[in-house]
Predict the structure.
Amino acid sequence: DYFETLSKNISEDFDIIEFNYCTLEGDKKNNSNISDSKFPYFLPVNVWTKCYKRELFTIIKFPKGLYFEDFAVTPYFVNVYKVKKIDNVLYNYLVRPGSIITSGKKVTDIAKATNYLFSLFEKTEKKINNYDIFLMGVYYHVFICRFGLLFNFPFFVFIKLRKEFTVVFNNNNLRKPFALLKANNFSLKSKIKILFRMYCPSWLLYSLRKMKIGV
């Protein structure tokens, strides 16, 4: 019922339709809930959980040759354009070994995608309410949800990748982490994690992670 459901919800009043999906990992099934977003103004970045007006892509393009290209564009779409959310589960997402997400391939492209995203927002910042909270959502997403991919590599590779990964902080939008940490939408534990991953020596951070200590 994918196309039937979407066709019933298409309207000139909205630019994007966003729907739920089911994650399949082995025998486990887990349905998403887009109406229960943890951080306001930072909706799921998956490009495949949405239906878009074609004309949106005459203005914005996905960056060529970049992994995690949805993270470079989708947050812009869902924050600048009108989004309609529907509860239907319309997509099955299969988690498999060896994929980009599970293997950590091209993990530093996340940082490049982040900088590309902010280049889109340079002229549209005033259109977003609570922009600082949005920045904090990006910050959290990159360094908590994605940073863990780095630990899939041997230590010497981890050191190199972590150094490359921090290029995201060269972006002026993310050079004030302490100011952004004032956002009330984040628990104290989350804020400590972010700071710890930012400033902890690589050898200690890597060791703690390998010992399965929650960092």
Observations:
- The radius of gyration is 18 Å.
- The chain has nine helices and four strands.
